[in-house]
Amino acid sequence: MISRLHSSALLRGRSQERALYSNHFRPRAALAAALALGLGAFSLSAPGQQLYRWVDDDGKTHFSDRLPPEATGKARVELSEEGIPVREVERAKTREEWLQEQELERLRRETQAQVDKQRKEDEILLRSYRSADDLMMMRDGKIEAIDVMIQQIKGNIRRLQNRVNRLQANAADLERAGKPIHPTLEGDIRSTKDNIEDQLALILQHERDKQGVYEKFAEDLERFRRLKDVREPVVDQSSEQVRLGLKNLVLCANDRECDLLWGQAIGYVEAHSTQPIESLSDNVVITTAPQDEEDISLIVSRIAIDATSPDAGSVLFLDLQCSSYTETASSCRTPARIEVLEGFRAALLGDAAGRMPEDKSGEDAGAAGTEATSAAPERAPAPAPAPAQKPAPAGQ
């Protein structure tokens, strides 16, 4: 009885093993059959040859040991002899896709170059300055260096203008005596006037350089505060000087308007300077130097925008005269002097706007001719300050 039960259990165990074996190997057999249908024909006849799997335009999958011409540009999978994928090849790119990829790569390189450049500049900025105050001190030092050059140029202009006055006086004496003016004398007068024009243009260029310094350091200061995560406001005393960059500069578009505004500029100097006019010409007016801190001494110049085009317009520029050539603008500017500079533009353009409405188009054209007035305010009448004049020294 026990022997029959043992035999029956043994038969059932073998039957289960056969079932498990069949279930385990049936899927692999099916896969092998599928591969045999697609690969068997050439895998047996060409061992070691590269095999490919690719899809045609109709969505049908193909297996082959070589690619037909119509499949060379399509995506494909390279298979081993056993049918295992070893490498995937993307489809060939169109010319448009290739060009787009090249452009994207160029943009990525440029972007990375900008990022690297910015990081380098940030590192230099942080190494160069310990605080925002250090940065502003460096800026002020650059501004003062430019101011010293401007004061030296003003001294040159004063000497050149005195020379012109002497030469013109000599020419007038010859005319009164009925004698001809020698060409050399005429040439000296002409060349000295040209030299004055060059010096005036140089002053205007230095003023623009100062504006560039202010703008650059404003960006550096903002970046420094961001890098240092400084949240408290930084007290910057330069805003007043930046505002003066436009209020003491006036643009005129043509000779007629420039002549009118030039006459008003001379009147403004006469009304607001405490010092008498020392030298006056067609393009520069200079008062005598200040004698003390309360004196207001001015220089106003008329600078052609384009020397080769007489009717291209001019810039009228008002500035302070300091007591010495080495004195900087920051030490020369007192509240009363700043008030005079700030009133210059409004005084001239407010009056001109009321008297010459037909020239507004010309004013626009002139404004487009120079970047110095890119943020020029609208023309509107505004009262100008008029400090009490000092009496002229005896003999002047």
In short:
The protein is α+β, with helices and mostly antiparallel strands and 396 residues long. It has helices spanning 2-43, 95-128, 132-176, 183-228, 239-247, 255-272, 329-332, 335-355, 360-368, and strands at 51-55, 61-64, 76-79, 85-89, 249-252, 277-280, 284-287, 298-304, 314-320.
Describe it.
It is built from nine helices and nine strands. It has 396 residues and is an alpha+beta fold. The protein has two domains: 36-89, no CATH class; 122-228 and 241-373, no CATH class. The strands form two sheets. Strands 5-9-8-7-6 form a five-stranded antiparallel sheet, with helices on both faces. Strands 2-1-3-4 form a four-stranded antiparallel sheet. The longest helix is centred in the middle third of the chain and has 46 residues, at 183-228. A hairpin with a 5-residue loop joins strand 3 and strand 4 (85-89). Mean pLDDT is 74; it is low at 19-45, 239-244 and 351-396. The N and C termini lie far apart (152 Å).
